[in-house]
Structures are given as C-alpha cells and as structure tokens.
C-alpha cells in the first residue's frame, strides 16, 4: 500500500500531498483538473514510461523551475523518481534513499492501470498489447523488466551494425545475437508462465456480468533465436530492423462465450474483457507475491451501467488491492462505500469533507 504520496512540480501539480486513509481512493474533479496526472505519477513508480507513455521532459510543470519529483512511502520503504532541471531526460530513481534503477522498483511495488485510451487495446497494434502483457508479467516476475531492457539494448546495437556501410564483424553480431537469445528466452518464458496461469484462473470465471477472455500467445518466441537471427542478417539489414524474436509476439484475446476475437467485439465487451483480465491478474499477483498490486483506474465508472458498476466495485474490493480511481462526479461511485474521497482542482488535491 502507498501510505504517503508527494508530487513536486509534476504536470500541473506544484506541491501535492496525499495521505490515504482507506484502501480505495477516489479522485474527483473537472476535466483538466489534474486527476489523471496523479495516477500517472504513481505509474512512474514502476518500470517504464508510465500510463501515458510520455517523454520525461514533458512531465515537468509548465512555468516551474524545471525537473520534477515523485515520492511514495510504500509500507515503510521510500520510493522516489523524477528528473533534475539540468538533465530533464535522465530519470532518477531512489529506493530507501539509495540510488537505484527503474527496474528495481518492481521488487517493491506492483502497479497496473486501466485508462480510457486502453479501450482500443485489442484493435490497435501488437506493440500496445505486448506492452500491456509485459506490465502484467513484471508484476509476477520483476526480473522481466531487466531482461526486456537488455534484450532491447542488444537488438538496437545489432540493428545499428547491420545498417552500417561497412561489413559488420560477424563475431560481434554473434555475441549480440547470443545476448538477445539469452534474454529472449527469459522474456518468452515469463510471458508464457503468466498467460498459462491466467488462462487456468479465467477458465472457472463466469461469462457474466463481465465477459470471460481466452488468452493465448502468438508468435515464434525465442526458440532457436540465435540461429534464426544469424540466418536472417541480410533480410534484417534490408528491412532496417530485426524481424524475428519475442519483440514480435502478440497477445490473442477471444470472448469465450461468443468465440469471437476481442477486436470484433463491441466497445463495452472489450472493456469488460480488459476488466476481467485485470481482476484475474490482481488475484494471481496476490497469491504469488503475498500482496495485491496497486490498481490505477482512470474514469473507470464511466460508460458502465449501474448493475455492472456495483458488481465491479464488489469485485475490486475482493481483490485486496489499493485502488486509485478517478471520476468527474462522486455520484459515479454511489455503489461504493468506505472510500477516501479527494477533490482535485487546478492542480491541488484536498480531502473532501463529505
């Protein structure tokens, strides 16, 4: 649980302090008030670029001194991240007051989120689904973030070598391909473990009131990857990128009751499928790590009918997660009791007296 959250010069927040009193925190306010900015700040306490995928330099408060800071007390361990004014593109991470890596944050806090932009996840590119899958995977296998970063670094070096005008050193290429194969195997194994266990958990889930998803991985993965990469150097050089490996895999989601691909389902059904995945994942993380993840749910109550909304709130509480939810009106959470209500206005957050 996040016991204390502070934001300094982040987005439109000059100096915000939130001290949660309940497992569920509801942030309400007008559009543009800064509710989603608070969720984005929390999402940066995990590896990656946060729920918006924005550049670090764009996160500092406009008109501020430059740079920003985010800090959270997570059950007595202080986690912090931000950038300095002098190096606005270089991320700083501290764990317990000691400099660390973004990947190291996953050891202390599992964070997942659902935003309105993700409503099109099943219709967008495979890259978006891979990023979603990898966030789920990191929560169960924190080392997955490190393997992914090292795989990407080796692949970028290989691509640069193949794009060079001079003939690349075969031994150097082979070394990079061996690194990609090593980390690629770890990536594929962690993803497969997650998908297999999620599928087992979801098979007993009822089809209503939320759609039950069937999950499978698509792609060649990392099987014999070093051999494949060596044989495909000429093709990859012509393409200007690496065309084989786990970075090309995709997550397939099917509506179980209708036997229909998620991309062909209605908008409401797609959101229901996402919610089912998120709820099952939260239960899996809690069973595996002994503590539930933090869930960031942006405008979660919008466009859900009152019956499903009530059931959703009940199931969210059952997960044992710390919930951070946003909405324009507190009435959207009328079926939810015992939450800590904070109002957000013009970059300020204050606990509601109501």
Descriptive notes:
- With 354 residues, the protein is of the alpha/beta class.
- Helix content is 36%, strand content 22%.
- It has 8 helices and 15 strands.
- The chain has helices spanning 35-43, 126-140, 143-163, 170-202, 225-231, 233-239, 267-289, 306-319, and strands at 2-10, 13-18, 24-28, 68-74, 77-83, 92-95, 98-99, 111-114, 213-218, 250-255, 260-261, 294-297, 322-327, 340-345, 348-351.
- It is globular and about 70 Å long.
Instruction: Give me the side-by-side strand order of the main sheet.
Output: 2-1-4-5-6-7
Structural class: alpha/beta
How many strands appear in the DSSP assignment? 15
CATH fold name of the domain at 127-266 and 276-289: Glutathione S-transferase Yfyf (Class Pi), Chain A, domain 2
Superfamily (CATH H level) name of the domain at 127-266 and 276-289:
RecF/RecN/SMC, N-terminal domain
**Class of the domain at 127-266 and 276-289 in CATH?**
Mainly Alpha
How much helix, percentage-wise, in residues?
25-40%
Percentage of residues in strands: 15-25%
Mean pLDDT over all positions: 93
- Low-confidence residue ranges: none
Order of helices and strands: EEEHEEEEEHHHEHHEEHEHEEE
* CATH architecture heading of the domain at 127-266 and 276-289: Up-down Bundle
Please tell me how large the radius of gyration is: 21 Å
Number of helices: 8
Structural shape: globular
The N- and C-terminal alpha carbons lie at a distance of 24 Å
């Amino acid at each position: 649980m996040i016991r204390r959250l502070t934001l300094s010069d982040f987005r439109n927040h000059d100096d915000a302090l939130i001290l949660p009193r309940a497992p569920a925190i509801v942030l309400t306010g007008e559009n543009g008030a800064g509710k989603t900015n608070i969720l984005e700040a929390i999402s940066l306490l995990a590896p990656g670029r946060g729920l918006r995928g924005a550049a670090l330099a764009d996160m500092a408060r406009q008109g501020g001194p430059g740079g920003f800071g985010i800090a959270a007390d997570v059950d007595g361990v202080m986690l912090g991240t931000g950038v300095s004014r002098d190096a606005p593109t270089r991320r700083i991470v501290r764990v317990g007051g000691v400099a660390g890596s973004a990947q190291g944050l996953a050891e202390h806090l599992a964070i997942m989120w659902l935003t309105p932009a993700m409503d099109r996840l099943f219709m967008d590119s495979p890259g978006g689904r891979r990023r979603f899958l990898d966030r789920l995977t990191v929560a169960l296998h924190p080392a997955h973030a490190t393997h992914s970063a090292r795989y990407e670094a080796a692949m970028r070096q290989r691509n640069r070598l193949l794009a060079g005008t001079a003939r690349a050193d075969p031994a150097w290429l082979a070394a990079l391909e061996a690194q990609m194969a090593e980390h690629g195997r770890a990536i594929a194994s962690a993803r497969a473990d997650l998908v297999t266990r999620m599928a087992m958990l979801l098979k007993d889930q009822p089809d209503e009131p939320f759609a039950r998803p069937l999950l499978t991985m698509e792609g060649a993965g990392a099987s014999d990857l070093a051999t494949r990469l060596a044989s495909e150097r000429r093709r990859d050089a012509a393409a200007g990128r690496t065309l084989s490996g786990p970075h090309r895999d995709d997550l397939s989601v099917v509506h179980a009751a209708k036997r229909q691909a998620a991309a062909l389902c209605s908008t409401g059904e797609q959101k229901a499928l996402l919610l089912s995945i998120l709820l099952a994942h939260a239960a899996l993380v809690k069973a595996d790590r002994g503590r539930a993840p933090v869930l960031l749910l942006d405008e979660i109550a919008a466009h859900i009918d009152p019956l499903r909304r009530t059931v959703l709130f009940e199931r969210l509480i059952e997960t044992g997660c710390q919930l951070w939810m946003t909405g324009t009106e507190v009435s959207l959470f009328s079926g939810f009791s015992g939450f800590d209500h904070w109002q957000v206005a013009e970059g300020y957050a204050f606990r509601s007296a109501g």
